Amino acid sequence: MNDSAAVGAQQLRELIGADSLLTEAADIAPFLVDERRLYRGRAFAVALPRDAEQVARLVGWCNQHRIGVVPQGGNTGYCGGATPDESGRQLLLSLRRLNRIRTVDADNFSVTAEAGCVLASVQQAADAVERFFPLSLGSEGSCQIGGNLSTNAGGLNVVRYGMARDLVLGIEAVLPDGQLLQGLKSLRKDNTGYDLKSLLVGAEGTLGVITAATLKLWPKMRSSATAFVALATPEDALRLLGLLKAQAGERLSSFELLPRIAIELTTRHISGVTDPLGEVYPWYILCELTSAADEPLSELLQHTLAEAAERSLLLDAGIATSERVRSAFWRLRETVPEAQRHAGSSLKHDISVPVAALPQFIHEASLWVRTHVSDGVLVCYGHAGDGNLHFNINCIDRERSQAFLAQEPVIRRAIHDLVAKFAGSISAEHGIGRLKREELQRYGSPVALGAMRAIKQALDPNGIMNPGKLL
Ligand SMILES: Cc1cc2nc3c(=O)[nH]c(=O)nc-3n(C[C@H](O)[C@H](O)[C@H](O)COP(=O)(O)OP(=O)(O)OC[C@H]3O[C@@H](n4cnc5c(N)ncnc54)[C@H](O)[C@@H]3O)c2cc1C
Known about the structure:
Layout: H1 3-16, E1 21-22, H2 25-28, E2 45-47, H3 52-64, E3 69-72, E4 91-94, E5 101-105, E6 110-114, H4 119-128, E7 131-132, H5 145-150, H6 158-161, E8 168-174, E9 180-183, H7 196-200, E10 209-216, E11 218-219, E12 223-231, H8 234-248, E13 252-259, H9 260-269, E14 283-291, H10 297-310, E15 316-319, H11 323-334, H12 336-343, E16 346-347, E17 350-352, H13 358-372, E18 376-381, E19 388-395, H14 401-406, H15 408-421, H16 437-443, H17 446-459
Helix pairs in contact: 8-10, 8-13, 9-12, 13-15
């Protein structure tokens, strides 16, 4: 650490206490690498504040000294947003100690949680008072609510409850000048000017640090039915989605698409995962109905799938007959990213297109991959009910990994150009971070980007909040 960094660290210790600042290389190293191991940054210190006031003091000091602040939650993000740059001049601000559930108000159907609460702990706090918090991601055991809001996370229940932004009633945040914005309202209706909470959600730490949020709850779910369905084509998946929405309405909470290769990868690489249907089929849907009432949802699902079979929309289906079978279905779905990792290098694209355009997009994009990426295999899966695909390509030969990865710019351009042709998005749920900054410049609307820069300049004129991310 150089002299000025040492002086800075000493001043920060005085602000938040010596036990809340890490400066030893070995202590800070785990904070400096992102989930996908794409980036390895440096930081002169890692701050571990205990409350919002300490966050405010830290950010105010950084603003005064023009020091970049990188907020970090569970560090499970896929776009390098929580990793500092390589300068060694930035402060990494970990929210992990702000991990209290402040209140759970069952009557108001709301929970107020600090930013560093792990997502699963918010779900559990709701469950304890017979309520349900619907945000659910494969990383829910380690991602934090502040990170979920900052990335506007999606996940497995968006088809019914919307994205993280749709679940927020109020936000408490430290603005770039160190002021604490007390916005923890728990109102369902509040038309009093600009919606600042929505601005902070999805800002990826570039407009301030979220310290707590008040979130919507639903009644606890009492019934559910889950099916693993085999299909011939993505067109059939779209028709099945329409049928399920028409027959089950609001009860449809998940609709996930999986290609055959996802079954092969998970059964090969993840212990305990088995093929739910036994036979080989080209495509699968994992769908779930849930209800707060005591309802015979298995019958409803069975009836709907029987109708789908009559219309020749499906090839086979299994309905979970126990919680064990249901968990096995979901384990298969949730371990696809891990299985892909075991299978070797991959190129990932988190994209969305209008739901109705999904089959055509899959056909055109798959054709492009087959024609142009001879050393790759397509693993295209995801939240089909939301038009969101993880359009990933795995290298088929470990020996050729380097050459495969070298094609990344060409492959990314082709896929994102196709996404643009379909009026889609180059980031459906993972955000922009550092990874997709240039892509946002290329595909974003110049007017929208201009407005974003103006907002950033107005709130953070010194550019201290998560520099080099998003914009
Ligand atoms: C196995 C697995 C499955 C996943 N599945 C999904 C999925 O289905 N849907 C989905 O959307 N994502 C998914 N993700 C990605 C990731 O979990 C989400 O993006 C998650 O919301 C990130 O939360 P985090 O706490 O880890 O944030 P981090 O990675 O720590 O940070 C993400 C961004 O938010 C900023 N940030 C973090 N906390 C704050 C704060 N308090 N205030 C201001 N800025 C902050 C950071 O600076 C960074 O820019 C998955 C990841 C994994 C590993």
